[in-house]
Amino acid sequence: MSSPNPLKVGVLLSPTTQLMDVAPLDMLGMIDKFYARSYPEHIAANALDIEYYFVNETGESPHSMTGGFKLAVTVSALLFPLMIPPCFRKVVSESESTKPTRRLTTLQHSISTCPPLDILLIGGPAPTYRPSEAIQHFIQTQYQYVRHLLTICTGYIPALYSGVLDGKTVTAPRGLLPMLKEEKPDVKWVEKRWVRDGKVWSSGAVANGMDMMACFMKEEFKEQGALTEMALGIADFARRGEAY
User: Fold this and answer.
1) What CA–CA distance (Å, rounded) separates 100 from 80?
2) What integer best gives the mean pLDDT of the chain?
3) Residue 93: C-alpha distances to residues 90, 99, 234 (Å)
4) The pLDDT of residue 3
5) DSSP labels for 86-141?
6) What is the model's pLDDT at position 90?
7) Quick one: angle between helices 208-220 and 225-234, nearest 10?
8) Among 2, 14, 108, 114, whose CB has the most other CB atoms within 10 angstroms?
9) C-alpha–C-alpha distance, residues 12 and 25, integer Å
10) Residue 160 carries which DSSP code?
11) Separation CA 78–CA 131 (nearest Å)
């Protein structure tokens, strides 16, 4: 994978997203330039330049997650309005949106202000969660831009209801697969730790997100092969295959 510079990686936060579902992002962070400063110079030379975006529906921050954890929604200084694509632009006021000159504006990253991403990771909400139309639209729009969509555990739910999983081979928590096969036959459900279909990667249970991320990193960042192997070795990652 020839990576954009910088690589824009976003995490969609749903209500009660499980902390462990977004933790695999930290594995990817072990091959970015910030973390790689601690590696030998010849290894760190291929580190990725990554921009991280943590977004929720409203932009309200911090975002409450499981275990009492609160995660700050990303705040960035952006040039408004010229650097924000129209499909993601949040109009602050009609007078400001029509100004021809650029100016620096601080934006809280809700789904309406997040820029087009290269990678979108969706962590798992509660199994009863149903995404709003706004969330569905966000996923549908981002899907046109992303190189990869990663769902972890019940993170399949927002993607499923947005329609981007139709016709895809997907996995989910094992206990939910019989119901999903019956109720959502437009998706090919398989019982695996993780599975890839084109640009869609999905994992089964919460811990399988780590399995999936390790495979994702090795397959998609071959130019960073030595760096990835060092990161996985430092983390003492237990390498498990797709099959349970």
Assistant:
1) 10
2) 85
3) 9, 10, 49
4) 66
5) GGGPPPS-HHHHT--S-EEEEEE-BTTTPPP-SEEEE----TT----HHHHHHHHH
6) 43
7) 160
8) 114
9) 12
10) H
11) 28
- Written as six digits, the tokens of 103 are 């100016």
Specify whether the CB–CB gap between 88 and 113 falls below 8 A: yes
Range 207-234 average pLDDT: 93
Q: Which amino acid is at 225?
A: G
The residues near 13 (Cβ < 8 Å, ≥ 6 apart) are: 22, 54, 55, 56, 63, 65, 71, 73, 123
Distance separating alpha carbons of residues 1 and 217, to the nearest angstrom: 10
If you compute the radius of gyration of the chain from its CA atoms, what whole number of angstroms results? 18
Separation CA 150–CA 216 (nearest Å): 9
- Lowest mean per-residue pLDDT among 5-14, 83-92, 111-120, 173-182: 83-92
pLDDT tens digits along 110-154: 788 888 999 999 999 999 999 999 999 999 999 999 999 999 999
The residue type found at 234 is I
- Which candidate, 50, 75, 52, 51, places its Cα nearest to that of 62? 75
